[in-house]
Amino acid sequence: xxxxxxxxxxxxxxxxxxxxxxxxxxxxxxxxxxxxxxxxxxxxxxxxxxxxxxxxxxxxxxxxxxxxxxxxxxxxxxxxxxxxxxxxxxxxxxxxxxxxxxxxxxxxxxxxxxxxxxxxxxxxxxxxxxxxxxxxxxxxxxxxxxxxxxxxxxxxxxxxxxxxxxxxxxxxxxxxxxxxxxxxxxxxxxxxxxxxxxxxxxxxxxxxxxxxxxxxxxxxxxxxxxxxxxxxxxxxxxxxxxxxxxxxxxxxxxxxxxxxxxxxxxxxxxxxxxxxxxxxxxxxxxxxxxxxxxxxxxxxxxxxx
Length: 305
Ligand code: CP
Ligand code: NVA
What we know:
Rossmann fold, 9 strands, 2 domains, binds phosphoric acid mono(formamide)ester, binds norvaline, alpha/beta
């Protein structure tokens, strides 16, 4: 049985298969509807944090594939508080054919997978957001017609989204650049765990402090919030440190190319991204959000089909 916890556990070939499957399911959907390949199957969704895209796209994906999904809010489950992660995993496995969890502690989603007898999907943890990164690969593929040899520049906080993007880029042979303030970059452990995969696929990694250096020659400029869910107590310090990392017209003009601009959303307009960029001609943020749906379908069919 396969889980979708981290892209480090999947092979490059398997992830390319997910991209192909997502393209197929998207085409099938716009051509009149998906076949009910998940008929009779239920996805149990456990959220410790809020969500719009992840919750909606998984629930809608299950329904459009003939199955269904059930949502539990942060207050209801009390994962690891009201009852142990292991008990939640075993109970949900007896009701549902798959579990999707959004957690704080990455170890909780690992522990769920250890105890569950059905596939477990990481719908975001403090460390990683694999579903987002794979949806983003679909969006980039649609725009450029390929992924290999493209250059993605991630600007701002070295967070869960940045980690999964680096992992995805390594798998598909994209060059990954990141610019973060001192102390807010990706950890050495996160960087080095993909070295071999990147080298095999022809992708490279470089970290910068200066965002202008990072965007030079970029095909894709990507940003995310400066204050992720769970970091609220550090808001003032983060906003101050990240001021020079705003994705705005001035930074875009330094790419020397015509890059697309991506943001996983929710956006804090006026902080990590300006309105004119988010809503301007470079932006693909809404097709990007839509593709979460098509990629979730691929993940669900691969794991639960
Ligand atoms: N991008 C993303 O995961 O959005 P939500 O937090 O709304 O699910
Ligand atoms: N890095 C953000 C992503 C939200 C989808 C967070 O963890 O809050």
